[in-house]
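Box 3.1 A note on notation
Throughout this textbook, protein chains are presented in two layers. The first layer is the amino acid sequence; the second is a token string describing backbone geometry. Keep the layers aligned when reading.
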Amino acid sequence: QVQLVESGGGLVQPGGTLRLSCAASGNIFSIYDMGWYRQAPGKQRELVAAITSGANTYSVDSVKGRFIISRDNAKNTVYLQMNSPKPEDTAVYSCAAKVGYYCSGYVCSAPSEYDYWGQGTQVTVSS
């Protein structure tokens, strides 16, 4: 079992900065990929960024150059640094963990590939 707890969400102005954290506990040594997803009202859940245990990273085109995913294995925490957020980044952000083995792709990308999810944290980008 793995437990994931997100923090760091809130209200941020366009062009500001915000850092989301996802702390993992439990059977952390079984974790391979970790990802950040988001879901805005009326929209499908979207993979924002993902990182493997070997530090390979992926980010969706809409956030490239603005959002950075990183992982501190000593703290069992994955971060999403949000720079210059835009109003369209407003959503509930959730972290997810894949355990047991690597996905067949570069990173785990489909929600069904992840085994554990956090409760989500609201990010609102507005002036």
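The longest strand covers residues 17-26. The two ends are 40 Å apart (CA to CA).
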